[in-house]
Write a structure and sequence with these properties.
With 181 residues, the chain is an all-alpha fold. Helices cover 62% and strands 0% of the residues. Helix 1 packs parallel to helix 3, helix 4 packs parallel to helix 8 and helix 4 runs parallel beside helix 10. It is elongated and about 50 Å long. The two termini are 21 Å apart.
Length: 181
């Protein structure tokens, strides 16, 4: 059980927050636990959930790649909650557990990943483990694969999701009872 008790989703009366929670549950990331905790401050909950949904499920970077990165970041953050959730959209698009696991492991030589995927996976890893490696030369390499807008989308996604995952770890959210639908 987390350090902060989540509100019962049925007790949340704000229609916008209810709609955001429904979108999250359809995506599978997050499930009801995290929004239930955030719902204690509805304005913040709505802002965070909107940002989470936009960064993860929208944009010009492949959602499957974002899902692999999201899990990689959760594992790096030691966040069992987000590491255990899976995007239903990414599953429908063909993402499997073996590819997710490979993205958190030795992806550099894995033929499942393109050169662009490998750069994005390195970006996520290095941003937190070795930020000094994310320099002008690193971004120049990224421009071979992505537009500057896509690089900024990835960077914002990485920063936001890693931060949310550190937050859920600090809340003691623990592993989900299911792995997304």
């Amino acid at each position: 059980m987390p350090h902060v008790e989540p509100l019962n989703i049925d007790d949340i009366r704000d229609p916008e927050l209810q709609a955001l929670i429904a979108r999250c549950e359809m995506l599978g990331v997050p499930d009801a636990l995290f929004p239930g905790i955030l719902a204690r401050v509805p304005a913040h909950a709505k802002a965070l959930l909107r940002a989470l949904l936009v960064s993860h499920a929208e944009g010009n970077v492949d959602h499957r790649l974002k899902e692999i990165i999201r899990v990689q970041l959760a594992r790096t953050a030691g966040d069992a909650y987000f590491a255990g959730l899976r995007s239903a959209q990414a599953r429908r698009d063909g993402l499997d557990e073996e590819t997710i696991a490979a993205g958190s492991g030795k992806f550099e030589d894995d033929p499942r990943f393109t050169a662009a995927d490998k750069w994005a996976l390195r970006y996520a890893r290095e941003m937190y483990l070795n930020p000094e490696k994310v320099d002008a030369a690193f971004y120049d390499e990224g421009r071979k694969h992505y537009t500057e807008a896509q690089i900024m989308e990835l960077g914002a996604f990485i920063a936001f999701h890693y931060g949310m995952q550190v937050f859920t770890r600090a809340l003691g959210a623990g592993a989900p009872s299911r792995s997304g639908a």
